[in-house]
Design brief:
This protein is mainly alpha-helical. Helix content is 75%, strand content 0%.
Length: 303
């Protein structure tokens, strides 16, 4: 009966009411509905307004909750992204990169891409860690990888020191790329020899000597002489002299051996002479000291 009355009244009820189902009306307390009573529409509309307002608030809360959850997920993602580089020890990072480089195919793009990804988490360029990586690669005799890593560092404007240059030259030589080592020397180092360490010069001379690049060896030594640089050991002079002999520069060979003959003296014999001279001077001072003591003792007795 109540439902039939509702359908008859639905013709003039508000559009909001018509959108509701019978079950929803029953839930809103339509059992109290009286046809013809003027409070009908007021009762329904008040209850509907309250319910819709409640639903609107609930939907807003759900949307706000979703937005907060999304923001929270982004923050967590940012935190995780930030912590990836911080929560791993430096040694683990080094080992990871070494293993990655050893497993990569022989491709410049692949190596450079792996290195770029590896340093992406670092705030500062990890030059110290890369030196450990290079040492590990040298231990594995991965000279080609050493060359690639150093060239990548130089492309980033990092590692521009004589030590790194020397490491690259040595790796190029071990990778059977002496000509490339020579070109790098001429381009980066050989233009100003007054401050290049002798150790690096000796390394380049050894490369020239082993690879039969004798003219380059003699030229480098003469360039060093032009800057007033004197060889610190006889092995350097001997190699240059041998190169001169092979090239037919016999007069140059004699000049070198005569100029640096002091390097060919017997070092052991010289050390013995030095030790004998020091011992003689100590004995002489000791005798003077003893003679002075005896003189003072005689004067005391005479008084």
């Amino acid at each position: 009966m109540l439902i039939r009355r509702f359908h008859r009244a639905a013709a003039w009820a508000t559009p909001l009411l018509r959108d509701l189902t019978v079950g929803q009306i029953m839930e809103l307390g339509v059992s109290r509905l009286q046809v013809g009573n003027s409070c009908y529409c007021t009762l329904i509309q008040d209850q509907m307004s309250k319910q819709l307002a409640y639903k609107d608030i609930k939907n807003k809360d759900v949307n706000n909750s979703k937005a907060l959850d999304h923001t929270s997920e982004q923050n967590i993602g940012d935190i995780r992204k930030h912590q990836i580089g911080e929560n791993v020890s430096r040694m683990d990072k080094i080992n990871f990169l070494v293993n990655t480089l050893l497993d990569l195919r022989d491709s410049k793009e692949a190596v450079y891409g792996a290195l770029d990804a590896w340093v992406a988490w670092e705030q500062d360029f990890p030059i110290v860690s890369l030196k450990h990586v290079l040492a590990a690669l040298e231990k594995e005799q991965q000279w080609h990888r050493v060359v690639q890593v150093i060239k990548w560092m130089l492309s980033k404007g990092q590692g521009t020191t004589m030590n790194v240059y020397g490491q690259l030259i040595r790796a190029l030589d071990m990778d059977h790329r002496a000509e490339e080592a020579h070109k790098f020397w001429v381009m980066k180092i050989g233009s100003d020899l007054h401050s290049v360490p002798w150790q690096l010069c000796r390394s380049m001379m050894s490369i020239y000597y082993r690879n039969k690049m004798l003219e380059d060896l003699v030229k480098l030594f003469k360039d060093l002489e032009a800057f007033g640089r004197k060889p610190p050991e006889k092995s350097i002079v001997q190699r240059v002299a041998d190169a001169c002999e092979i090239l037919g520069l016999l007069e140059e060979k004699e000049r070198l051996l005569m100029k640096y003959k002091y390097l060919f003296t017997d070092e052991k014999h010289g050390s013995i002479k030095k030790y004998e001279r020091v011992s003689f001077e100590k004995s002489k001072r000791k005798r003077k000291s003893t003679k002075g003591t005896e003189l003072n003792s005689n004067l005391t007795k005479a008084q």
